[in-house]
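Q: How would the structure tokens look for this protein?
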Amino acid sequence: MPNCKTCNTKFEILAPRFYGRLGIPEPRDCPSCRRRQRLGFWPYGILQKRKCDLSGETIISAHSPNAHFPVYKREYWFSDKWAAPQLEIDWDRPFFDQLYELQCKTPHFHQLGKNNVNCDYADDVWECKNAYMSRSMADCEDVYYIYRVLYSRDCMDITYCYEMEQSYECTYCFKCYNLKFSLDCRDCSDSQFLYNCRGCRNCFMSWNLRNREYCILNKQYTQEEYREKMNPLHLNSRKFFDQMKEKFKNHLKNDAVHKAVFQANCQQSSGNYITNCKNCNNAFYTEDGEDCLHVMRNARIKTCMDTCGLLRGELCYGICQSTDLHNVQFALFSADCSDSQYLDQCYNCTNCFGCVGLKRKKYCILNKQYKKEDYEKLVKKLIGKITKEGEYGEFFPWKFAYNGYNLSLGAFYEALSQKEIQELGAKWENLPENRKEGIDAETLSDFSEAITDDLIGKPFLGAETKQPFAFIKQEFDFYRKYKLPLPILYPEKRNRRRFEKLAPLRPQKTKCFGCKKEITAYYPPEWGYKKVVCEDCYLKLVY
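A: Here is the predicted structure in token form.
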């Protein structure tokens, strides 16, 4: 087994035939280091104001004003108002130096997504309306502070949820209505503090329930008894909710049954949070995959390896946040491309090598057009050159990343110090300075009735982090409508705290609480979960 050139740990080369099929060398980094590098290219920094480098107008983007390439407003980038620069191949210079020069000269668009209305303060947003401070979503309306959400309406502070409505502070929940403070629930409504519940209504502080109604702490009540129990509760109080969160956490530790891995309708697959997958290994947050390895946050992919954020792809390797690719290796933020390598933000391209910002092109190298025969000869010669340089088959070098690692999705899963980031060869990006002035959020009233419009737009300093933030009117309308107290944590702090339950990627060996056999799970020991079970015991204990 080779040693990883980055972390020096030994790792196994799986599916070696895949590399031969694509004609690329086997990797020199271990799967974890390769995944970290791909995620380090996915911007997850703050959304901030900057200028469009074409029109000069103010835009809101995850790309900082100091980005190493021009940034155009998306509608201009997809227009005919500019032409991508091109370079002649310089056989005396390293290839990646030339590609980086081209990247620095080529405009990138300011926001990922299209067909949106009133979604300026959002990124990776598709077919949405009225979204604010949100990312990675499609077909949503009137949503605020959400992350990776599909087909949802009138929701706030939800993470990795599909088909939700009128819900708040939920994680990994699906097809729920008026659900609050819940985790891993499906088809539930009018409830608070639920874990791993299915088809439940009017329940409070319960776990592992199936098709139940009027339950508190898993105990069944009549409708009248349930209302009598619920009426005295201070559901409009932040202090009350904080107390309930601690109780809920203790019940998750001591009472709830936890399935070792989250897999649904999967065959011969390993990983966590995967659905409808066959022969997918070391896969995470992936749906509808087949014959894939080392993949994360993908959907509808087949025979792919080392992909992050790929929607609809086949025979792909080394991909970050791209769509509709076939036989593409090493691509960033590209779509509708085939039979190509080393693409950065290219659209509708085929047979291109080392290109940036191209649209509807074929047989291009460093953005320059060639005849088919010349292209094929030059690519073969160029691959030989890059191989001699010891870099062919490697992902883009760190300097190509749009943002500093600390402002990437990589840091979302694996935070590193500035020193560690720089030792990797990655960039560290300083945040824009915010004046640490404002009202201490902890002084906000405890009750929802005290929400008044005079607080809108005023600077508040979040509890714990002391990062400044402000409320918008739509938030106040939401909190008042559902009688919820104002949150006091910085919005992104709230999101990351929700996602902590889904973030672990390292498998843990443990014993099943039921049958005592050894199993693989993804719950860190420090969480203290006592009832982690295999699939068979889960079905016996919960269903």
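The CA atoms of residues 20 and 26 lie 8 Å apart.

The two ends are 43 Å apart (CA to CA).

Upvote if useful.
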